Amino acid sequence: MNKTLSSITEVVIRFSECDALQMVWHGNYVKYFEDGREDFGKKFGLSYWNIYEKTGLAVPLVHVECDFKKMVGFGETITVETTMIDDPASKIIFEYAIFNDKKELVCKGKTIQVFLNMDKKELLITMPHFFEEWKKKYLK
Asked: Which residues contact 129 (CB under 8 A, 6 or more apart)?
């Protein structure tokens, strides 16, 4: 049975993230997903800069899903729960659940990232060795 890895990140909504209706502009939720991924990477040794420095690989987003449930606004604190979904393919999948301070679901989402050799500008269709080893350490 594979383990599930998650991280919890708190974000305080800034004024600049809100629209004229005083609610978070929809495009900022992708930034909150990024906050969650960065926190996950620090917690589990899978940060983007470390991957790039050690392997020369980038991990660009190729897919984003975002389902809005409730609005949040300036000054509120949200909690971003970021969960890695194990997949046998050469990609990284995260699912997100964002909650307000009342623990109500605000947004659900998903992202998919792939591995890109930056020197050759080439997509890796097989899983990089470092990621196989990382999965053995953290997911098995």
From this structure: none
Q: What is the Cα gyration radius of the chain?
A: 16
Cα–Cα distance measured from residue 112 to residue 62, given in angstroms and rounded to the nearest whole number: 6
Please determine, for residue 1, whether its predicted confidence score (pLDDT) is greater than 60: no
Residue 44 CB partners (closer than 8 Å, separation 6+): 5, 7, 84, 138
Overall pTM surpassing 0.85 (yes/no): yes
Q: Which CATH superfamily is domain 5-133 in?
A: Hotdog Thioesterase (3.10.129.10)
Q: What are phi and psi of 44, to 5 degrees?
A: -115, 15
Whether residue 3 is predicted with pLDDT greater than 80 in this model: the reply is: no
* Contact between residue 9 and residue 35 where contact means Cβ atoms under 8 Å apart: yes
Q: How many CA atoms lie within 13 A of 109 on its CB side?
A: 26
DSSP state of 54: H
Coil, strand or helix: which one is 69?
coil
Amino acid at 50: N
29: number of CA atoms within 13 Å, CB side? 27
| Token representation of residue 92 | 């990284």
Structure tokens at 82: 């970021």
